Amino acid sequence: xxxxxxxxxxxxxxxxxxxxxxxxxxxxxxxxxxxxxxxxxxxxxxxxxxxxxxxxxxxxxxxxxxxxxxxxxxxxxxxxxxxxxxxxxxxxxxxxxxxxxxxxxxxxxxxxxxxxxxxxxxxxxxxxxxxxxxxxxxxxxxxxxxxxxxxxxxxxxxxxxxxxxxxxxxxxxxxxxxxxxxxxxxxxxxxxxxxxxxxxxxxxxxxxxxxxxxxxxxxxxxxxxxxxxxxxxxxxxxxxxxxxxxxxxxxxxxxxxxxxxxxxxxxxxxxxxxxxxxxxxxxxxxxxxxxxxxxxxxxxxxxx
Length: 304
Fold this sequence. Notes:
Elements: H1 3-14, H2 20-41, H3 54-66, H4 71-91, H5 117-131, H6 136-151, H7 155-159, E1 166-167, E2 172-176, E3 182-186, H8 189-204, H9 227-238, H10 250-262, H11 267-274, H12 279-283, H13 290-300
Antiparallel strand pairs: 1-2, 2-3
Helix pairs in contact: 1-2, 2-4, 5-6, 6-8, 6-10
């Protein structure tokens, strides 16, 4: 990685407050772009960031398509290159942005996968049955499941929760989303009850951090769970209702949004709860709110 690219990544993390995942993804994209430029121009010594032209950027996108990159991955890589050149313009005196004129790959609209109400009921019934055994792991997994569905938070947000972020008296939780933006979310009563049970078993197992600080969700050794550990725990529960479908941890967030909209929740309110910067990102969930649309149709149309 060049010195300019390393500066850019530090800028993203320290000044723009981008999430660690975004910084890593942009780093991989710039490494791929630099590797392509080595081959395109005939070696590292034969090109510079200031000398890259728009034809090279277009060739990079064409090469990415030949390599089988998805349109979404290619679009993110182009976004990384554009942001990098804006940084070079401000901090390194590079005037041209060769990625500016490149066309962003048109993304295919994908409807998010989610669980319907009966599946959610079966899922929580299975989680409650396991938690009834009063084991540390079962209680913890049920608490994570309840919190995911109760708040719609992202996987990274749940993993990063600390004990001081959760207030079980006022039933709310403080989460830090993309760009380290904070938002306060309500927590439902079933989730609060599941968290209290988990806390009791966690404390009895001696896995709680001292002074009421440290991570909320931990292993039996008291260490913060990794994102992969949370995913595996949720998959064990989700497999009970998947019925061959591809249901992931993120499907709980999709289910949260879809069920709110089905019940008539305001789109702007759902946007705030999800922590979306743009309303257009939230609007995709309106396509899955078939129950709500049918209800409005039958209520309003004279010949429904």
